[in-house]
């Protein structure tokens, strides 16, 4: 329980639950995991990009990105080719079908945002957005710093993860 708000879950637990709700809504709408949808969104944003760059941008394991690329290529959502300037790299780009899903996902996101914020004042929306942006920056900093340090409260004295 949160010390500041007795009877309420701590903010990280609330964020995790919100993430689960969102993942379910997107999976229901598009028949894909949130990771795959983030992958498509990033490809739509960047255009043609190497798999190595996608690994870096998305913070995903290389083997996962490779699996996504192969699966999505089989599904007709993207194409891949060797980089003509450095054949060690594979370049991927969305097909028109992949671009269509990415566009529909953007429309879905805007519609979902409108539904979530319905009835809130512009001031409340601005405060929520600012709060989420600050929390996102904190999470990013923690991730970059490698939150596996000794100060990680999810680890016990032996250094193992609690369940």
> Ranges with pLDDT <50 over ≥5 residues?
none
| Backbone structural class | mainly alpha
Order of helices and strands: HHEHHEEHH
Let me know the largest β-sheet: 3 strands, antiparallel
Radius of gyration: 19 Å
Mean pLDDT: 86
Write the CATH architecture name of the domain at 35-143.
Answer: Orthogonal Bundle
Q: Indicate the overall shape.
A: globular
Which percent band covers the strand fraction?
A: 5-15%
Helix segment count? 6
Give helix % range.
55-70%
Give the beta-strand count.
Answer: 3
Spatially, the strands of the biggest sheet line up as: 1-3-2
The CATH topology of the domain at 35-143 is given as: Arc Repressor Mutant, subunit A
N-to-C terminal Cα separation, in Å? 17 Å
CATH superfamily of the domain at 35-143: Winged helix-like DNA-binding domain superfamily/Winged helix DNA-binding domain
CATH class of the domain at 35-143: Mainly Alpha
Layout of helices and strands, plus pairs?
Elements: H1 11-30, H2 34-46, E1 49-50, H3 51-58, H4 62-74, E2 78-83, E3 86-94, H5 96-117, H6 122-145
Antiparallel strand pairs: 1-3, 2-3
Helix pairs in contact: 2-5, 3-4
Keywords:
mainly alpha
Describe the 3D structure.
The chain has 163 residues and is mostly helical. It has a domain at 35-143: Arc Repressor Mutant, subunit A (Orthogonal Bundle), CATH 1.10.10. 61% of the residues lie in helices and 10% in strands. The chain contains 6 helices and 3 strands, in the order ααβααββαα. The chain has helices at 11-30, 34-46, 51-58, 62-74, 96-117, 122-145; strands at 49-50, 78-83, 86-94. A 3-stranded antiparallel beta sheet has the order 1-3-2. α2 (34-46) crosses α5 (96-117) and α3 crosses α4 (62-74). The model has no long low-confidence stretch (mean pLDDT 86).
